[in-house]
Fold this protein.
Amino acid sequence: MSRITELLATMTLEEKIGQLVMVSLGAETIVTGPRAAEEPTVEDVRSGRVGSVLNLVGRDRIHALQRVAVEESRLKIPLLFGLDVVHGYFTNAPVPLGETAAFRPDLWEKTARLAAEEACDDGIHLTFAPMLDCARDPRWGRIVEGPGEDPTVGRAFAAAKVRGFQGADPASPWSLAATAKHFAAYGACTAGRDYASVEISERTLHEVYLPAFEAAVKAGCLAIMPAFVDIAGRPMSGDHGFLTDLVRGRWGFEGIYVSDYDAVGELVAHGVAADMVEAAAIALKAGMDLDMESRAYPDGLKPALERGLISIDLIDETVARVLRVKERLGLFEAPFGRGDPARPAASTRAERRAVVREAAAASAVLLTNRGRVLPLAPEGGPIALIGPFVDDTAQMIGPWSGLGDQDEIVTLTAGFAAAFPGREVRVAEGCAADHAEDDAGAACDAMLIAEAEALATTCDVVVLALGEPSELSGEAASRARPGLTGRQAELAARILALGKPCVVVMTCGRPLIETELLKKADATLVVWYPGSEGGRAVADLVAGAVSPSGSLPVSWPLDVGQIPVFFGERPSGRPFVLGEHFTTQYLDVPNTPLFPFGHGLSYADFGLEAPRPSSPAFRAGEGVVVTTRVTNRGARAGATTVFLFSRDVVASTARPLLELKRFETIELAAGETRDLAFTLTAADFVLLGPDLEPRLEPGRFDLSVGFSADRASLKTVSVELLAEPAVA
Ligand code: BGC
């Protein structure tokens, strides 16, 4: 008999339900240590009423509680410890949206690996990451947590992160089980308002929102977290069609579903369950394995069984899945194996710092650089470094930063001092990052602005460090007007009015709609929340030690009224024609974003030749290779990302104007030329037919290469997908 069958045969109903319960030891516990032995959680663990824990950190505390489970509980089943290890544990890489801008799956994987090593060393088994929600609405604060607007990028990000967190063998002590979240279409919540209902077509769901999750499953992710939201009235936490039929049935998912925080109980608020008992039954029947914190499973499953809403077989099946994941993680053999000081992590601290520094530099996106004001010369008069983001450690690492050790964070002030040994850097706060609550705060801002102005007049160039405070980015941080907060816009206007060269360094978790500022500043470098080494990485870019190479993973709107604005829209029957009234357009703002998806400047100067197909016509089985020649015409080395898009010109269902098929980031020395070859196979030409089933439709495809999704600057070639010869 297998261990799991044996265990199931001996478990009481209460012990079975306990394996489906995940409790939070609360934020306060993170700081103060585990609850005392007499407190309920410890007793719950001892009696088998809790099988998994989240938010407890610290190896000693984790091991102390694990010891209760494996030594004092009747069945000695180890606990599973989970935490949101999103972009770092101690050492933070940039936030995921920022990291996506690097367009480097190798880096995405590396930063996940180092986060896994640090978390595993502390005793964590499971991370609630990667977040894979495609997001086309920067009003939604959680756009910061994921890979942006495009499903192809989402797929690559999913695979890289799962590989990075889990490594090759889930049972290795350095493997952190990954949770693909939030399944699915959370990013499409109505009007960007967090937790609001989702209303999208089945097609968009399948083409845009699901692919990243399917990629995570294919990569072997051990857990999935259903989203808080409902799609067209079907709350994800209780939907059998999605969780079981689609993901387990069609995709072959073998891991566990971990509910989002309280989400099982929220089925009542959604209006699909009358009480917690029904909520528990609906979720269990849908396929939800772990109830995170809602009390629906611990309080509701037994009465649900008594009411005949669920069967004991279903409970057994669910418990078996949870135990299987514990087994695959090697917890039965080595409940304390992770974080064993006798097994040093594969990487050193210095190596981890180097990786996050590289990631921060590769993630920054140079939006504008008028008159090539950047990079700043190493020698010269004083630099004014002004703004509320110059020296605030929390603002460097952003939301969901794990334990991000504040003492280890390099701020802009420190970074600039090191990067400009030949120039004086004069620093001023400029104003508070957030709105002043009272008159005293307003007076303080007025004084800070005046001081900053005075300081700027004494300097040759101003670097304005502006942005969005990290408390306004992430979960429950929707903003109808995502822009600069507090009196930062006023600070910027006053500094710009001085007429000095002015560079904006923008710290943010989403596109900030500040069109006037972005048009007036001489240069703008978006650094997101750049992480533990952010200050050094940003200063390296400003000083020119490194050339910017990041590209926008989301379209950057020009006006809030354009949202959602994204490159993958479908054609209109009346495409926009300038000056023609009855074509698709706004009367007051352009259709196009301020900066397209993929946009990002460099200190190098890249050119791209028209793509050349291996053959103008091909059969699906043969595929086609598209080659383009990239040249760095500039005087400096640099890296850039080349995108390959396709458009299926005529199809049974209208296809988007552009579909991203491939991207590749390459580094070229000054004057260097290189050919980039992209191989497209049959899968790249598959579309979902009117019945949403995949199929190939022969005909013309336009293949375009470019440095962004700006259609006017793409270079295009048409190829023909030939019909398969009829079988005789
Ligand atoms: C978030 C999840 C997160 C969970 C646990 C929830 O509020 O939506 O993304 O994993 O909390 O911290």
Notes: The two ends are 53 Å apart (CA to CA). The chain has three domains: 83-328, 352-562, 606-722.
